[in-house]
């Protein structure tokens, strides 16, 4: 494997793991369910996407063949993450989960 490919794979891995770290910190630090749901779903989707791109590059050029597994993983990820976040948010609105005092808007009072 060439040096440039290793650098590119390393860059995508670092970028992806940085996004995952930001999402994990957001999950830990944000005050209520709705803000905890928003931060990690966006950041971890980008983070896992970066890691999957690194895996796609590594295995496609390492084995001299295109790897479809990573494309299927990323397709499933980018379809299922927003749908599951929407379902969790809808269930939280129906349950009227408590909000932090700084959170603006109460969708169940409209």
TrEMBL record:
<dbReference type="InterPro" id="IPR005133">
    <property type="entry name" value="PhaG_MnhG_YufB"/>
</dbReference>
<feature type="transmembrane region" description="Helical">
    <location>
        <begin position="71"/>
        <end position="89"/>
    </location>
</feature>
<protein>
    <submittedName>
        <fullName>K(+)/H(+) antiporter subunit G</fullName>
    </submittedName>
</protein>
<keyword id="KW-0812">Transmembrane</keyword>
<feature type="transmembrane region" description="Helical">
    <location>
        <begin position="39"/>
        <end position="59"/>
    </location>
</feature>
<feature type="transmembrane region" description="Helical">
    <location>
        <begin position="7"/>
        <end position="27"/>
    </location>
</feature>
<dbReference type="GO" id="GO:0015385">
    <property type="term" value="F:sodium:proton antiporter activity"/>
</dbReference>
<keyword id="KW-1133">Transmembrane helix</keyword>
<dbReference type="Pfam" id="PF03334">
    <property type="entry name" value="PhaG_MnhG_YufB"/>
</dbReference>
<keyword id="KW-0472">Membrane</keyword>
């Amino acid at each position: 494997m060439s040096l440039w490919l290793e650098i590119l794979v390393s860059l995508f891995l670092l970028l992806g793991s940085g996004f995952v770290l930001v999402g994990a910190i957001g999950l830990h630090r944000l005050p209520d369910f709705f803000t905890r749901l928003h931060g990690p779903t966006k950041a971890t989707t980008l983070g896992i996407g970066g890691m999957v791109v690194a895996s796609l590059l590594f295995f496609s050029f390492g084995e001299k063949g295109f790897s479809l597994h990573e494309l299927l993983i990323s397709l499933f990820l980018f379809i299922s993450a927003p749908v599951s976040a929407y379902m969790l948010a809808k269930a939280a609105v129906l349950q009227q989960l408590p909000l932090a005092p700084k959170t603006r808007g109460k969708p169940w009072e409209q």
